[in-house]
């Protein structure tokens, strides 16, 4: 950042943190620049743009999502639209290879110009503009003259949500998508199946949701999503720049499937009841019955792929030991490829002989993935001691795990992750497992503000990052989090402790 923050804006920010309103109401003071993730380049320039009445919006027809996002942002701030207004906001599609698929430029001068090569790039520009503006309506607005040029470091900036152990309602997923978009996160990975529940309707196997959808972890919520609901959610997310990535976890973590269709288990398996406990690694599709298992896998994947257009499809592959495990991963990944998509598997899947475009998701700290890296396999980085946010926001937080790191995963810890050594990484994903997360409020508490730190690690160049600056910037966005109704953890590092 060429000019990180002006002294006067720092003062305004300090006053705001102290809860003292600042700036005269007729001529609003220029607002501080508190962008998360921090952009590639921010050049502040002398002067400011006052917005006191309506604005005109000049939006490219080919960018309907950004146009809608801007309209919603302006309406939320009570800024009226009038084609004859002196202040104009331009949304422009431009050819500028340096911006890539998702980059954008945002210029505030006598008017506001957002430009990008794609609608998604413009969506990100609109989110930056939202962050430059206050969280709530006020009589006037002033923006510092600034030129922001920005593009992501990684193409995969994700959250994995376990909706299998404890179900999360569609409305909560929509809210989470909106909040992720605000921080330019772009992948929502849904862990749709596990021992404790099967959450996606599969029309050829109705009992998967009739039986498998009716269970949950003890104390958690049960339920399932119809394919229609998921299609609508896919569209909702796409319009906000987010791809939904489905996971069908196989060949282990399948007790809900076995309880629904007993023939998927080997004949000597006695316990075929729905499961609500916390153990892992005990259930497995009967790999000795390929004539039963592979048609099931193919039929399920066909329906899943018809709902989710994502190029990458997660096939699970964690926490199961079986002599035919590697063969299963190789066959299933090849099946996904045959269907025109690319498989993701948890790190253990790297023992299988797969095409080098198969993606592995790291989760155990220190897992030796070097052989897969040598073959060129892309990686998604979720090492548990940084990104397992079912772990506490602080050591000893009630209803959190600590098996990976006994001190939990505080904000500063997560922010301190360095992705640079992972040369084939395509990005970073935080993971919220829900054995101990049974309400929307608990989910919010685990996600925020740690997802904002995940977003910055995955989007911003290393040279611009730094915890002190992050704390100052995300701290200043508290009003935006409040306006979005987020029930975040009152993080003491941000001065949010109650
Ligand atoms: C995992 O935590 N079993 C991927």
UniProtKB/TrEMBL annotation:
GO terms for molecular function: beta-N-acetylhexosaminidase activity. Residues 154-323 form the Glycoside hydrolase family 20 catalytic domain. Keywords: Glycosidase, Hydrolase, Signal. InterPro entries: Beta_hexosaminidase_sua/sub (IPR025705), GH (IPR017853), Glyco_hydro_20_cat (IPR015883), Hex-like_dom2 (IPR029018), HEX_bac_N (IPR015882). GO terms for biological process: carbohydrate metabolic process; glycosaminoglycan metabolic process. Belongs to the glycosyl hydrolase 20 family. Residues 1-28 form the signal peptide. Residues 35-151 form the Beta-hexosaminidase bacterial type N-terminal domain. It catalyses: Hydrolysis of terminal non-reducing N-acetyl-D-hexosamine residues in N-acetyl-beta-D-hexosaminides. This is beta-N-acetylhexosaminidase. It comes from the Bacteria. Pfam families: Glyco_hydro_20, Glyco_hydro_20b. Its EC number is 3.2.1.52. It is an enzyme of class 3 (hydrolase). The active site is at residue 319. SUPFAM superfamilies: (Trans)glycosidases, beta-N-acetylhexosaminidase-like domain. One of its GO terms (cellular component) is membrane.
């Amino acid at each position: 950042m060429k000019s990180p923050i002006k002294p006067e804006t720092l003062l305004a920010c300090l006053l705001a943190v102290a809860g003292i309103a600042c700036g005269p109401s007729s001529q609003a003071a220029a607002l501080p620049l508190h962008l998360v993730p921090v952009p590639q380049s921010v050049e502040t320039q002398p002067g400011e743009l006052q917005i006191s009445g309506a604005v005109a919006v000049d939006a490219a027809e080919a960018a309907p999502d950004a146009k809608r996002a801007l309209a919603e942002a302006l309406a939320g701030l009570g800024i009226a639209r009038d084609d004859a207004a002196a202040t104009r906001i331009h949304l422009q599609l431009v050819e500028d290879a340096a911006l890539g698929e998702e980059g954008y430029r945002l210029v505030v001068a006598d008017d506001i110009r957002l430009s990008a090569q794609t609608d998604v790039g413009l969506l990100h520009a609109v989110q930056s503009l939202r962050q430059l503006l206050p969280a709530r309506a006020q009589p006037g607005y002033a923006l510092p003259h600034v030129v922001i040029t920005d593009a992501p470091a990684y193409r995969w900036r994700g959250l994995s949500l376990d909706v299998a152990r404890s179900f999360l309602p569609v409305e909560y997923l929509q809210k989470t998508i909106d909040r992720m978009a605000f921080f330019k996160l772009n992948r929502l990975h849904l862990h749709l199946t596990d021992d404790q529940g099967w959450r996606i309707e599969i029309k050829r196997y109705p009992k998967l949701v009739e039986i498998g959808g009716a269970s949950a972890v003890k104390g958690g919520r049960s339920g399932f999503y119809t394919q229609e609901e998921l299609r609508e959610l896919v569209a909702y997310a796409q319009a906000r720049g987010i791809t939904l990535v489905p996971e069908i976890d196989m060949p282990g973590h399948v007790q809900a499937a076995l309880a629904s269709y007993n023939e998927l288990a080997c004949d000597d398996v006695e316990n075929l009841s729905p499961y609500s406990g916390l153990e892992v690694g005990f259930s497995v599709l009967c790999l000795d019955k390929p004539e039963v298992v592979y048609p099931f896998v193919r039929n399920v994947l066909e329906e899943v792929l018809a709902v989710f257009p994502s190029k990458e499809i997660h096939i699970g592959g964690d926490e199961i030991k079986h002599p035919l495990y590697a063969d299963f991963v190789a066959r299933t990944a090849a099946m996904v490829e045959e269907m025109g998509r690319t498989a993701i598997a948890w790190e253990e899947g790297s023992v299988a002989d797969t095409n080098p475009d198969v993606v592995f998701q790291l989760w155990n700290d220190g897992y030796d993935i070097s052989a897969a890296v040598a073959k060129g396999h892309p990686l998604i980085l979720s090492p548990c001691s940084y990104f397992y946010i079912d772990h506490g926001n602080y050591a000893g937080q009630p209803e959190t795990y600590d098996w990976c790191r006994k001190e939990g995963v505080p904000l500063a810890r997560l922010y301190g992750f360095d992705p640079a050594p992972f040369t084939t990484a395509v990005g970073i994903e935080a993971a919220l497992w829900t054995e101990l997360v049974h309400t929307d409020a608990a989910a919010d508490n685990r996600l925020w503000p740690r997802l904002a730190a995940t977003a910055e690690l995955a989007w911003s160049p290393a040279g611009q990052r730094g915890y002190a600056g992050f704390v100052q910037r995300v701290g200043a966005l508290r009003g935006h989090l409040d306006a979005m109704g987020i029930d975040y953890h009152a993080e003491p590092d941000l001065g949010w402790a109650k």
